[in-house]
Amino acid sequence: MLKLEGVTMNYGRRAAVDDVSLDLRPGSFVGVIGRSGAGKSTLLRMINGLAQPTGGRILWQGQQVSGLRGAARRRWHARCAMVFQQFNLAGRLDVLTNTLTGRLNHVPLHRSLLGLWSREDRAMAFAALERFDIADLAAQRAGQLSGGQQQRVAIARALMQEPEIILADEPIASLDPRNTAVVMDTLARINRDDGITVVCNLHSLEIARRYCDRLVGLSAGRVVFDGPARDLGEDAARALYGIEAEAAAATPPQEQPQEARAKSPSYAQV
Ligand SMILES: Nc1ncnc2c1ncn2[C@@H]1O[C@H](COP(=O)(O)OP(=O)(O)OP(=O)(O)O)[C@@H](O)[C@H]1O
């Protein structure tokens, strides 16, 4: 169980996240929704430990994971992987190396610095890439891939951590509708097949409704909705998104033109 107890993040006198208490069941697929600035990213960053709450605490399986330092914090990072909107891959490195960096918390530093990955780690990385239909891209530079391919590499890298939770911060915000479906299907697969808890910040209400078994709606840092997607009525959704309601209800935006699209012959592969 991931438990948040009165979690708060103040920036100056302003609360980005305000007294949030939640119990998230292991193996669930939770969508965090709300308008821009509602506190979604801050909430995920606090769960992962990239930011420390100014109030309250976060527990995983009964153990406090907020306020950790040093090795304990690094161990929590390994169990709680993060996927970002902009993929955060090393664009000049090949796909296989990017994927292997997910093992950094499992191998001695000198081995990773020298690129001395074990045969087992390499096999694991190939298996992860194969699972997401991108093993044929293993030798390509990550920066040459399409957005959808890069996000699948980022998810493969996250899996290499052998995490219990994946936190995805707007993972589809830079993708076109087709890649949006591929990436969301990938997250749904690892949630369903591996039992990994997925907490996903989403701007699109339609996508959140389609994929998540539970929605948490934030407004000005506070939880204003918490329940199954089917319980979120149109009026509540409109109140949650305010003037962004039309955009949130629509299908996701078109992918931004990418440098990679022109350069990479593999773009057509998705
Ligand atoms: N490092 C920071 N310093 C000061 N204020 C911050 C910081 N990070 C976030 N905020 C503020 O906290 C509030 C919540 O931001 P956050 O990024 O969590 O929202 P969000 O719901 O993820 O928005 P978006 O969908 O636009 O990414 C915003 O008002 C933002 O300006």
UniProtKB/TrEMBL annotation:
Residues 247-270 are annotated as: Disordered. CDD domains: ABC_PhnC_transporter. Gene3D superfamilies: P-loop containing nucleotide triphosphate hydrolases. Residues 2-245 form the ABC transporter domain. Keywords: ATP-binding, Cell membrane, Membrane, Nucleotide-binding, Translocase, Transport. It comes from the Bacteria. GO terms for molecular function: ATP binding. The keyword Translocase applies. Residues 247-259 have a biased composition (Low complexity). InterPro entries: AAA+_ATPase, ABC_transporter-like_ATP-bd, ABC_transporter-like_CS, ABC_transpr_PhnC, MetN_ABC_transporter-like, P-loop_NTPase. PANTHER family: AMINO ACID IMPORT ATP-BINDING PROTEIN, PHOSPHONATES IMPORT ATP-BINDING PROTEIN PHNC. This is Phosphonate ABC transporter ATP-binding protein. It comes from Roseomonas elaeocarpi. The gene is phnC.
